[in-house]
C-alpha cells in the first residue's frame, strides 16, 4: 500500500498583501509538515490573493525563483515535504502567468504549471504546456481553478498518464460558481480530483462558502468550508485509489 498523506491549505489570503500571505503560507506549511504531510497544496495565487492587481499592480511580479521563493525552497527542504504553491510569475521574455510551482523534499523546483484558462485573469497570459509531474513516483496533474471548466486540460493529463488531479483554486459561490466541473472531470478521467480552495473575499468575489474537496467518480468523499484559514489533512491509498480517512483532520490557523 502506498499511503499518501495530503494537507490542503484552505487559506484566507489578503489580496495584494504579499508579506502577510507569504507569512501565512510559511506558518501553514510548517504546521502541515509537523503532521507528516507528504504533499502540501495551497489555493490558486496563495501568495498574492486572487484580485490583487487593482491594489498593487503587476510590476512586483518577478522571474522565479526570486529571493523569497529561494527562501521558501530552503524551508521546504528543511521540513522534508512536497509543496504545490500558487504564485504569479514573470517569464524570461516578460510574460506574466498564474502558476503553481511543485517543490520536492530536496527543496528543488521539479516543475511549474501555468494556468491555461486565463480569460478572467486580465493581467496574465495563458499557459501552453500541460504535463503531469512525477512526485516521488506518483504522476500528479494540475488543473488551476478554471482549467477544470472544460475537459481539455484533464484529458491531456490523463493521456500523459497522470494518476491523480490536483486543483488549486479560488472559486467560490455566486456568479459563475462551480457547477459540477470538478465532479465531471473525475468522471471523464476516472481519476481522483483533489480541490484546494480558499476562504475570505476579494474585490468582487467572496469565498466564505468555497469548498475544498476530495472527489472520486463524481462523488464528494470529503468537503470543507470555513471562515478562517485551516489545514485539512487526509490519507489516500494510491494503490487501491481509495480514501483512508473518514473525514478531514482540521486544524484552524489563527493569527
UniProtKB/TrEMBL annotation:
GO terms for molecular function: hydrolase activity. InterPro entries: Aliph_Amidase/BUP (IPR050345), C-N_Hydrolase (IPR003010), C-N_Hydrolase_sf (IPR036526). Residues 4-238 form the CN hydrolase domain. Pfam families: CN_hydrolase. Keywords: Hydrolase. It comes from the Bacteria. This is Carbon-nitrogen hydrolase family protein. It comes from Bacillus lumedeiriae.
